[in-house]
Amino acid sequence: MQIQLVGERPLVPRPSATVGTCRQFSQPPERQVKPKSDLSHGTAIELVDHYLDKFCGRPHSIFHQATLRSQVRNGSLNEALLYAVCAIGCKFSGNPYIRGQGSSWAAESKRLLQADISNICLENIQACILVAMLSVGHGDSASEALFFRIATALAEIMSLNSPFPEGSVIDREIRRRVWWSLYMTDMWCISGQGLHSQLKGVKAKIELPINDRTFMSLHSEQLAIVDPLDHGIWAQMITLVPLFGPIHNINRLAANGETHTINLDQQVEQLAGNLEDWKQKLPIDAQMNHENLRRQQKRGLGGLLISIHLAYHHYATLLYFRYLEVQLPRSASDRTYITRFSSSVLVHTLLFGDLDQLETASRELNTNFEALMELSQYWPAISAMIERLLVFQDMCLLSTESGTHKLDGWMLRFLIEHSLDIEAKKMQVNPSSLNADSEKLSSKAKELTEQGRYLRFRSP
C-alpha cells in the first residue's frame, strides 16, 4: 500500500547511504570531542530507556528500540544523537540533578551536530529531528524550523524517499520511518509557523511503515518479514496527514473571504466525508475504545493510539470551527457540524451554553489546564500555549463585539500557527465610549464569573 500525495516535484537521483554510515563531503569545521564527564555510561543507558518508554513513537518513529539500546551499551552511537536522546530522556528522571542537565546536554548535542553537519548520514538526520523537538519544547520555534529543514535536506540527499533494497529489514524500515516522520513534521510543524512546506507536491515512492509490533520484534540480521503489507497504528497517522493541507486551505479562504460560502460548504462536506472514511477504515488495533486502549498500553503503544485520535479530533476542530460563529445562517448541515463538533469546544459552551452545562464545561476546562500545567514541567513552551488559550478565552468571553468565533485572520493564526506567539485581537474603539466599554467589560467579567462562565486559571 502506498500513499499518493497531490502533485509531484522531481528529485535529482542520488546514491543511497546505508543506515548509520556517514558520507563525508568535506571536513567538519570542528573536531569531534570526547563525551562530557557528566554523562556517565550508566546514566546514558537509564535515560535512553526513559526516552524509549515515554517519548519514542509519539511525535515521530525514528528508532528501532533494541538497536538503539544496543548502540548505547556498546558505545557506538553518534555522540550528538546520544546527547539529544538523553536531553529528552532526563525530563522523566526521578533525580532532580539529572533533570537539571537537560539544557546542557541539548546544547552539547546541537554543538556536536553543527560541527559534524557535513557528514551525510541517518544518525545526523535523527539528531536534527531530536534537536528540533528540544527547540520547540523550549519555545525556540526558529531553531525548530531550521533543524527540521536541515533534516529534510539531508534526507533528500540520501534519497530516503526511494526504495532501498540493501541491508537488513531494520535498516530499511528505519530509513522509511525517518522519511515519513519528516513528511508529517513538514505538513504539521512547518505550517504551524506560517512557513512554506518543503515536501508539498512530493510523491511518496516508498511503502508505509510496517506493523509497529512487528518492527519492535525484528532482530538485527533479519532480511525479510512474513507479512510486509501489515501496516500498524503509526501508518494510520500518515494516511490522515494529507487532509491537513486542504483543511488549512479552506480556513485561509474563509478568513480572507476569497470564495463563496456555498463552495466552502461543499469542500467541507467532502473533507468531512474523508475524515469519517478514515475513521471507519481503521483496523481493529487502531480503533479508540477502552478495551483496545488497554490492550495497546500493555504492548507499549497506548500513547501512539491516543496520538492518532487526538490528531483526528484536531483536524475535525479545524474543519468545523467556522460553524461556531453565531451570526451565520444555519442550514441543516451546519447544525449537524455544530452538534458533531462544539461539544468538545468548551469555551464555546461557556459562552453560549445553557446554565446547566456550565459546571461540566468548567470542570473539563480546568482538567485540561491542569494537565497542561503538569506537562509544562517537561516542556517549558507549554506555558506559552496556556497563555495563548487564556488570550483566546478572554477574547471570546470578554469581547464587547459580536462574532467572537468569526474565522478571521486573528482566529486563523490561533488555530493554525500554533508555534507563534499571539496577541489579543485589536478592536475598533471609539474614544468617546472608552469609559463605557471599560465599565461594560468589568460588569461582563463579573457576571460571567458569577455564572461560572469565566475561569481565572493562570499558568505557573
UniProtKB/TrEMBL annotation:
First-listed, main subcellular location of the protein, grouped into a coarse class? nucleus
Q: Which domain of life is it from?
A: Eukaryota
What PANTHER family does its record include? TRANSCRIPTION FACTOR, PUTATIVE (AFU_ORTHOLOGUE AFUA_2G09360)-RELATED (PTHR47338:SF16), ZN(II)2CYS6 TRANSCRIPTION FACTOR (EUROFUNG)-RELATED (PTHR47338)
Source organism per UniProt: Exophiala xenobiotica
Q: Where is the Xylanolytic transcriptional activator regulatory domain?
A: 49-279
Q: Is Nucleus set as a keyword in this record?
A: yes
Q: Where is this region: Disordered?
A: 17-38
Q: Name one GO biological process term.
A: DNA-templated transcription
State what protein this is by name. Answer: Xylanolytic transcriptional activator regulatory domain-containing protein
Q: Where is the composition biased (Polar residues)?
A: 18-29
Provide the organism lineage as a comma list: Eukaryota, Fungi, Dikarya, Ascomycota, Pezizomycotina
Keywords, A to Z? Metal-binding, Nucleus, Transcription, Transcription regulation
Q: Which locations, inside or outside the cell, does it occupy?
A: Nucleus
Q: Which GO terms describe its cellular component?
A: nucleus
Enumerate the GO terms in the molecular function aspect: DNA binding; DNA-binding transcription factor activity, RNA polymerase II-specific; zinc ion binding
Under InterPro entries, the record lists: TF_fung, XnlR_reg_dom
